[in-house]
Amino acid sequence: MVKPLVSRLHKEFNISAAEVDKNDLWDESVIACGLVTNEKGIADAQLNSVLKFVERYWRDVEIIQYSIIFL
């Protein structure tokens, strides 16, 4: 289930997405998404759209925790 989700996020939002942790667990994973832009507001809106997209279209996925970090 992780690979189709990561692929869809890349396709829908033109972002980088990858499974970055818990690869050995069948029922839990950590997915990281990233993008580069010169405006914090654009990045924030895009990443929040990713979260809403997963909640809306991937109903069998439970988001336990998320965070947005700006560098």
Brief digest:
The protein is of the alpha+beta class and 71 residues long. It is 42% helix and 15% strand. The model has no long low-confidence stretch (mean pLDDT 88).
List the helices and strands and how they pair.
Blueprint: H1 2-13, E1 16-21, E2 30-34, H2 40-57
Antiparallel strand pairs: 1-2
**Helix count, per DSSP?**
2
The largest beta-sheet arranges its strands as: 1-2
Helix content: 40-55%
User: How would you state the average pLDDT, rounded?
Assistant: 88
Regions with pLDDT < 50 over 5+ consecutive residues?
none
What is the H/E string? HEEH
Oligomer: single chain
The beta-strand count equals: 2
Distance between the termini: 29 Å
| Backbone CA Rg | 12 Å
- Largest beta-sheet details: 2 strands, antiparallel
User: What is the percentage of strand-forming residues?
Assistant: 15-25%
Q: What general outline do the C-alpha atoms trace?
A: globular
Question: Structural class of the helix and strand makeup?
Answer: alpha+beta
Give the number of domains. Answer: 1
What report would you give on this structure?
The structure is a single chain. This protein has 71 residues and is of the alpha+beta class. It has one domain (2-57). It has two helices and two strands. The chain has a two-stranded antiparallel sheet with strand order 1-2. Strand 1 and strand 2 (30-34) form a beta hairpin. The chain is globular, with a radius of gyration of 12 Å.
